[in-house]
Amino acid sequence: MQPPSEGQLSVTSGILNRLQKWKNDSNSGIFKDKSEYPTLTRMSYCQCRLKIVFSSIFNEFGWKHVWAETSVDSSCFEGIFKDKSEYPTLTRMSYCQCRLKIVFSSIFNEFGWKHVALILDRSDLFSLIVGKNLESGLRKNGLLSFVRELDGNEEDSKCDQFLKDASNYARVVILSVRGALVRKFMLAAHSLGMTRGDWTFLDVEIVTGSYWGEHEWENGDELDADARKAYESLLRVSILEPTSASYHDFSDLVKERAQTFYNYTYLDGEEVNFFVGAFYDGVQLLGMALNETLTMGGDIRDGKSITKLMWNRSFHA
């Protein structure tokens, strides 16, 4: 059997394909193409006009110099912030999604896996970006044998058919889909006899929490027993969160302040989001750089110089 052509295997997201076009077109907007959105009528503002509004304000008051501040980001989407000439003051304080393909490639090399299938949910932004990163990296390394996109909003996701198609090309399947769909796929795999050790499944759960969707096997229904058995064939890739005593103290303090100042109570077993710690580290690091700048008699409006003080250093928050 000959593998399908690339066009048959993957329906590339129009959003990602047009990112570069939008960035380079000063007057472009997501919905500007009337041939693609012929029935769209705007009843509100358009964000693409914000630059015109700001320019008008600056011209009105004769402002010629705008403060370029330091940016601190706690995540990374490959390509979006990669251009250092465009984002010279960006400092990453967290994981980089573009490294996921390196992690997966290391796993495949460790076990000698040469043929990999990828199923991704194009209706979920996180799953789409992760999936596209993996697709690019695995294809470059010659490991990707099959890729399919699906719309996770459809009630009938046809998980069993996707798995049957994938099984013709690979015995290692990456599920870059929302949490609820992971369970559906694993239950479908179990019913197809694909959870007996001949196939391996992988998914990505960067951080746990209701915001990111439920990724666990337990759902409180009659399928829990099958789901639990099926998940024995699932290898999950996630962030290794700190386990030190100081981090636990920090988490307790965050929960206390959340209740005191924002009337938010963490549920039993709910952990402090990983990004909270990343942003906290970012503020700490920025404060250190600002203090050093003032001590040296520097200009706190010089974002590039402050950023350089933040890079390549170790610190304890």
TrEMBL record:
Gene3D superfamilies: 3.40.50.2300. Residues 81-315 form the Receptor ligand binding region domain. SUPFAM superfamilies: Periplasmic binding protein-like I (SSF53822). GO terms for molecular function: peptide hormone binding; signaling receptor activity. Keywords: Membrane, Transmembrane, Transmembrane helix. It comes from the Eukaryota. CDD domains: PBP1_NPR_GC-like. It is found in: Membrane. One of its GO terms (cellular component) is membrane. Pfam families: ANF_receptor. GO terms for biological process: signal transduction. This is Atrial natriuretic peptide receptor 3-like.
